[in-house]
Amino acid sequence: MSRAAGVSRDSLNIDVYHKGVFSPNPLVYFHPDKVPIMGLDVRNMDFKKFKTYLQKLINNRCRDMYYCLKNRSLVDGLRELRDEDDYVRFLDAGFDDDDNQISIYIDDHHEPLLDWIEEEKAEEWDSGTETYEDDVDSVLSDDLSVDHEADDEGHSMA
User: Fold this and answer.
1) Which domain holds residue 113?
2) pLDDT per residue as tens digits for the range 57-103
3) Which of 143, 140, 153 is nearest to 22 (CA)?
4) Residue 108: alpha-carbon gap to chain centroid
5) What is the rounded distance in angstroms from the CA atom of residue 118 to the CA atom of residue 115?
6) CA–CA distances in Å: residue 120 to residues 15, 47, 105
7) Taking the model in full, what pTM does it have?
8) Are the C-beta atoms of 15 and 34 separated by less than 8 Å?
């Protein structure tokens, strides 16, 4: 299914980033592999089925999963994806606009990402310097590319 066709409320286009390493201050995900999923039908998929699908797709367990809100830096947009409630919020964020696009990050190293984010925001507040929203060079978004080896074509699930 092409991106143009993936605009129904039933399917999502998801970029899955895995095998990377998170690093704090500023929060960055280094050297990930990227697996694009085009038009994943989520109508009858609960959190458990979704997690099982991802585990099979990347051939690895998904211990710590996160998604990032669109057009936000990791510090401002990263959210946990650990249960059914988080999954509902993830779907809402994915269907927030017409492209039905969202990114997932898998942390294989069980890093304290939310603590790192709190510390980074506290340091930013204490220093009184410009925020990441004002610093264009530090903002990560879905529109920026990530250096990685060439990917095979996207995976889909009807």
Assistant:
1) 11-124
2) 999 988 899 999 999 999 999 999 999 999 999 999 999 988 999 99
3) 140
4) 14
5) 5
6) 25, 30, 19
7) 0.73
8) yes
